[in-house]
Design brief:
alpha+beta; 42% helix; elongated
Amino acid sequence: MATESRETLKALVVERDPDEVTRLIEQLEAAGYRLDHRVVHQAEEARAALMQRRWDLVVSDYQLSDFTVLELLAWIQGAGLDLPVIVLATGIGEELAAGAMRAGAHDYISKRNRYRLVPAIERELAEIRVHREYAAAERALEESRERFRQLVENIDEVFWLIDCERMRILYLSESYETLWELPRRTLESDISALLDSVHPEDFNRVSERLEEKGWAGLNLDYRIQRPDGSERWVRTSSFPIRDSEGRVYRVAGLSIDITAQKRAEMEMRTMIRALEQTADAVLIANAQGQIEYVNLAFERITGYRREEVIGRNPRLLKSGLQDERFYNRMWESMRSGLAYTDVFINRRKNGDLYYDEQTITPVRNAEGEMTHFVSTGKDITERLRREQRLHSIVHYDAVTNLPNRILFAERLREAVRSAKRKQSMAGLLRLKVEIFELLGEGQRQLAEQFVARVAERLREHFPERITVACLGGEEFAIIYRDVGDAHSMDMAAQEVIGLFQEPISWEGYTLFVTTNVGISLYPRDGEGPEELVQCAEIAMQQAHAHGPNDYLFFNPTMRKAGV
């Protein structure tokens, strides 16, 4: 009956008799082994064969050509090879056989008792497999222990492991001595010694947590006192380790020094309290212009609640009464790293204007990159109102006594709101009279007197319901409410130009002035006051390019032409 096929057997046969080698191979193949073997009988080739590959087994005669099995065993042990050796010999005597066993042979079998060979091989293969698996597990465990040791000894956190049954420390990392400034043995012998270093003000809180939840629930921030009296904040986090039945039998934990974090938090709380209690409005925005913080004074001054402005841009406060040049100066200053201080005309949530004496400071990181802007401001509106002639200064031009840009902007906004409500039109004329160029810079006071005469002529011609404003220098604007159609604005422009057909006289001087008029209409040319002002100015400039005493309505092609 055929023998069941076994695994491949990698065998090194150390034998000088070819007939013995043949009998050995036949015996093993008859036992069902698929044989992968090599035959040697000299010392050098035996040593080379041992080192060239991994063998399952060595079967060797006692006496070889130029060495004995004792030398072979010595080579195997010297090389640290985990390899079973079976001595298969005849007539060597019990003393030599016993010597071979003492030298490391796993079995001695007489060639006359070959029936013992296959069971011996099976036994040795089974034992070596178990031995190798155990050795591999030991190596893996040792490697795991070494990785664990390297991990916990190279982190700032203090790692600890507790045996819950015996309530003792199984492991405590070296970083404990750095943080606590105590030798590890103080805890290795008595885990309760941890409480001895807890700050008196935190002692009850820590001990109560331990009584309530045990070491597995010690997730807490607390202070410790070092032997020299210094204090450190510690954050401890614990992790229960359960057995197969769900019982907590170990507790692992990490303790980390959070003193710097706690100090930063306390400094931050102090700073926040100071910011909240200051009378100045404080606003902090990031480099992208998103508001990240405002204080109570900001809420009081602007009328906006904190949650309404966080994440928005500070431009929500803009009144539109300060031109782009004003804001360009501000950005130029801050891009150069300088703080910017000026009075901003802002608008509260309810629409009221207020004067904000504001300082904006850029904040840079360690790399010099601008990361935030800090704005501190005072509402100086009441102060200004208490000053002499506040109303005139704020709303009226000093030379002409006509509404200035501020009052003009408010009335234009009212006209647009009214037109929107009534679903009608509003009209705007922007005009410029040529005076300063005619008289030259040396006659500035005289030029201002003629500007005042121009304003007087405009004021006398137009009724009070039509706002005539001086936008500065020799520029004026006229606001028309409830405009019926574009034709009426055409007639209005002709009226304005007609007003200056007659020369203007003042204290012996006579001046023939020219003017140009630009016209914009709501809602055709824009949805907001700022757009109407811009469109009328573009049209006025285009009319000026055509020649004196001309007027034009705004149209989009003017903007495309770069006027």
